[in-house]
Amino acid sequence: MTRVTPKIQAAGHDCTACPIRHRAVCARCEADELQVLEQIKYYRSFEAGQTVVWAGDTMDFVASVVTGIATLSQTMEDGRRQMVGLLLPSDFAGRPGRATSAYDVTAATDLVMCCFRRKPFESLMLSTPHIGQRLLEMTLDELDAAREWMLLLGRKTAREKIASLLCIIARRDASLQLSQTHGELRFDLPLTREAMSEYLGLTLETVSRQMSSLRREGLILTEGKRHIIIPDFDRLLEETGDDSDGGFLV
Amino acid sequence: MTRVTPKIQAAGHDCTACPIRHRAVCARCEADELQVLEQIKYYRSFEAGQTVVWAGDTMDFVASVVTGIATLSQTMEDGRRQMVGLLLPSDFAGRPGRATSAYDVTAATDLVMCCFRRKPFESLMLSTPHIGQRLLEMTLDELDAAREWMLLLGRKTAREKIASLLCIIARRDASLQLSQTHGELRFDLPLTREAMSEYLGLTLETVSRQMSSLRREGLILTEGKRHIIIPDFDRLLEETGDDSDGGFLV
DNA sequence: AAAACTCTTTGATGTAGATCAACCAGCATG
DNA sequence: CATGCTGGTTGATCTACATCAAAGAGTTTT
Hints:
2 copies of one chain form a homodimer. By secondary structure, chain A is α+β, with helices and mostly antiparallel strands.
């Protein structure tokens, strides 16, 4: 389990060079506002599989994902688990005004977060409207995504669920690389079959079977277990059950 | 279909007498800020079953639910529907900065909304931080509720889903009446079996069967089709699958 | 007071996905 | 190079819920 510690931790204190500068909670901040943020921020790294916080534990910071992927999940007493959020670079974790985490937060891949102690961040929100405004916008986006996910969980078939997840990840990956979402797409699946099943409200066996079925039909190709190639994105899109046009807001 | 038009429409321009004054987006506003809001607000009434807006249609206002219940739902091309939100008095509908509704908004019961034209509301948000702050708080609450719902949709059994829904409605009803959530509770179900099924990701037959089963076991009693009596709230709570203590944030 | 609605309940049957159980591939470890 | 470990695949069987179908209860309409 030897993993390279992401470089940014050692380096970057300079917000202007930050890769998520224009999309994170600080996106609207002016130079002087950024300087205040730089005073209270610190980076934390996690290895794939590590837990950032457990549901119910105190969480005295809020944070932006800088690189990697984190998941939010809930667990029932008897162990049933449901993932309720997938945090990608620039997404925000934690809730101003709340001391304990409502969810298990876990590093799905190696992860770097830009953290702010909660109290200073909260007072900053009062004095710096740009932060609150941006956070509102991001929270509204999250709410839309959560509601889209409710449709998936409540009404889609296993096959549609898998296709939807693959399309979402492919799309977000493409948007990070600034490539087009047409024709062939390739990316690494950042989730295990088990994590996928927790996100989709399925068992991992069903996930595996549906992946195999999509592979058999040529809708996806795989290299190793995790590298996915989508030869024709639009064709996979048709399997999601969504409107051909609009669909997910991502 | 003769229904009494809610009185507030004729009467109330006075925010200070508003029943949702202390819980809605305007909760944190000072007297002078309320005066500005009063300038741009207007009431709209809808009868049970009426559509407020269709998904995709332009929605040039945002609004607070004053009395009654509204639902948000999504529809797939082939007609499968999933409810993604239940708006109770004081809840907020619409999204500042977005011109079209992402969901079908429907009056589940007779409904009165306090509306603000979107543009003036947006500029008010910039000049009146109290509104944006409150909206952020409400949106974060909605997001928590949506995530709780994802757990229900993804992992709960039909029986647990029904018990959860009844508990949530009973709880919110009790909080409006300022009564305790222990021992016997009674309330009117504001949803048809079909609406319940759309919310829970079930068919209406399954909803009906599970309601009958809870009734047979004495967990609920019914008077007519819609009036529900919960003789022992804590006993019903045990059927939800949630932690006995915390559970829903509502 | 019969007809037509809407909402609900109940029964018979079918099926998607869960559950239980092997087994395989890739890797790290003694 | 056997050993165990983690993550993934595939098969056989079971079951919770969907689907199809009919009928009851409470309305409004004629």
